[in-house]
Amino acid sequence: MPQQPRPEPEVPPARPVLADDPPRFLSLEREVEIEYRPQMLAALQGKVDAVAATAHGMTPVCPPCGQPMRCQDTRDVSWLARCGCLHAAVSRYRCPPCHYECRPLLDLLGVEPGRISGALARLLALLATVAPYPLAARLAWLLLGVTISPMGIWRVAQRLGEATARYQDGLSRYHADRRSVGAPTQAAPSAVVLGVDGCSWGMQVPSKRRHRKSGETLPPLPPVEEGRFREVKTGVLLLPSERVETSPGRRSVVRRFLVTCLGDADAIFARLYAQLRELGWVGAHTVVVIVGDGAEWIWNRATMFARRCEILDFWHALEHAWEFAQLRYGEGSAQADRWVHEIAEDLRAGKVQDVIARLKRVRPKTPELRESLQALIPYYSENAGRMRYDEYLRLGYGIGSCAVESAHKQVVHARFRQAGMRWSEAGARRLLALRLLLLNDNWALLDRLRMVSLA
Ligand SMILES: [Zn+2]
Questions:
Q1: DSSP string, 5-45
Q2: 105 CA distance to ligand 1 centroid (A)?
Q3: Average pLDDT for residues 174-180, to the nearest whole number?
Q4: What is the Å distance from ligand 1's center to 74 Cα?
């Protein structure tokens, strides 16, 4: 039925009114910002000059050979900070026999010539960690009063991301060696929950940059190949003792630590292990509770923990029963609902053997049904040892892998899987590393990492 047009109001609606000026206080704040920015720059430059003066005339020693190095030249170097551009006269030293070169003042200050450095670099990387680059550039203007292109943001994120990714990789390698030193484990908890989730991720196909010769039209780009997918995995560590019920039926954890990598099963377990060592969470009596969706690679790696408890995610276990019920009783039927509900109740009560026995008594009427049943029974039989849900609930271990699934979405989907996004492997690896710092509440670590120059 066509909609009746609404009768026109007698008086037309008035245009909403905007104030002529911003509130007075807002103007005052802006005035002060504009007035003091040059003064901040001058003060900062003064402090840089003082550091340069103390460093002046100190001849560095060549690290490879221990000989004093020779001053090659001294040049004016500038870099960018939030309040503006800073300068310093920087000497370059060289060791003639070793060809080793350095600029000690830049190393001391931790800045890169011609680049955004210091606090501004870290704040821009933070914006890139939460928002796509063009949006991050807009936020940089609104929040920091800094004009920068999306590409400029991208560059900063790459350099800090590379530093972070190298640190995380290095930590994994360090703890993979049995001689590594972890945090003390005297106060290790009695149980730690470990979960892993993954998804596949389409990666950009590396292609050669095409150069246009004068006026020539380039042929259209070839279609992007499908199938170049890599797995991205996320792992979560949490303490069951820190689970709290925020509202009836809603649980959340006080702390959780996330690890992530573009890589195989061994890589993610190496990350998890390194993080456990850093936290000091696995002591002689700690039970490592591993929650998995039934994927073999998780159980195969779980054996690295001597004291462990393997749990098949309750919802995955139920999903299989659900599929069978749909086939047997029809999709969306009340009978299917009831049947699955009963199975769920029995499984939760730890009666997996009863459930298996009941399934074995079912006489399937169609080949399809028989096939489904013949998959379900071994799935439960093989995993029965991981389905003692009554016990896990009693011990407070939990029975589901929702924590890891939501973590994976937060790490990956929320930033990386937006419309039209394509990632290079290096770009994804670097930004994932930064995102982990943020989500693990460890952003301050960036203060202790040197940016990596990427030529
Ligand atoms: Zn030397």
A1: PPPPPSSPPPPPPPPSS--HHHHHHHHHHHHHHHHHHHHHH
A2: 19
A3: 94
A4: 20
